[in-house]
């Protein structure tokens, strides 16, 4: 049976159980219950999540994301993580994943779009920033030979009915759409089958 680890922010929390259920009997799908937040938080906590979850050294695939927290704006101070910090931390995360899961295929998922006008005045996100950080990530992943699951275009023009708020897709239709996109990326890599 294959072993898959899903790591990511609250977007991941919207599809992790769906992926786990769809692959029941074919793969063990592991994930932390914790929101994995921004890139530096992922880097800091990878080892602890592995140990706490008893994921082992024989994981076949790690699907991960970080970015939506990084592009957040607090008041007028710019993004929480600068583009330069983001790039450096992504490189460090890939190196750490390869150390912790030596036989795993690594898949990076891009950050998904938001409805900008629904954010407040003290914290907000911009799709232009998300696109910029996704471009940074895709360039780095290509350089490091990491697969990319490009979720941004998949979720860009969906109906509002598939969103649960300005950021998330915690609806049956939204969960199915993003979950199927993840499955459509990872299953061919591992030779797994699933029904949408």
Supply the key terms.
6 helices; 7 strands; Rossmann fold; 196 residues
List the helices and strands and how they pair.
Elements: E1 2-7, H1 16-22, E2 27-31, H2 39-53, E3 61-64, E4 73-74, H3 83-100, E5 105-109, E6 123-124, H4 127-143, E7 147-149, H5 151-156, H6 172-190
Helix pairs in contact: 1-6, 2-3, 3-4
Describe what you observe in this structure.
The chain is an alpha/beta fold and about 200 residues long. It has one domain (about 1-190): Rossmann fold, CATH 3.40.50.1110. The chain is built from six helices and seven strands. The strands form two sheets. Strands 2-1-3-5-7 form a five-stranded parallel β-sheet, sandwiched between helices. Strands 4-6 form a two-stranded antiparallel sheet. Helix 2 packs parallel to helix 3 and helix 3 packs across helix 4 (about 125-145). The model has no long low-confidence stretch (mean pLDDT about 95).
In short:
This protein is an alpha/beta fold. The chain is built from 6 helices and 7 strands, in the order E-H-E-H-E-E-H-E-E-H-E-H-H.
């Amino acid at each position: 049976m294959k072993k898959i680890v899903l790591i990511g922010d609250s977007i991941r929390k919207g599809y992790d159980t769906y992926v786990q259920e769809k692959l029941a009997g074919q793969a063990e799908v592991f994930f932390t219950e914790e929101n994995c937040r921004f890139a530096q938080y992922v880097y800091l906590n990878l080892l602890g999540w592995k140990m706490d979850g008893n994921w082992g050294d024989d994981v076949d695939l790690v699907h991960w994301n970080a970015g939506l927290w990084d592009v957040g704006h607090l008041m007028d101070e710019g993004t929480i993580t600068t583009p330069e910090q983001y790039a450096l931390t992504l490189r460090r995360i890939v190196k750490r994943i390869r150390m912790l899961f030596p036989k795993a295929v690594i898949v990076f998922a891009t950050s998904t779009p938001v409805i900008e006008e629904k954010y407040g005045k003290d914290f907000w996100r911009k799709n232009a920033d998300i696109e910029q950080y996704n471009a940074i990530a895709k360039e780095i992943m290509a350089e490091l030979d990491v697969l990319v699951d490009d979720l941004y275009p998949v979720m860009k023009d969906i109906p509002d009915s598939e969103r649960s708020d300005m950021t998330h897709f915690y609806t049956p239709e939204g969960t199915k759409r993003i979950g199927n996109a993840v499955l459509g990326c990872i299953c061919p890599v591992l030779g797994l089958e699933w029904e949408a």
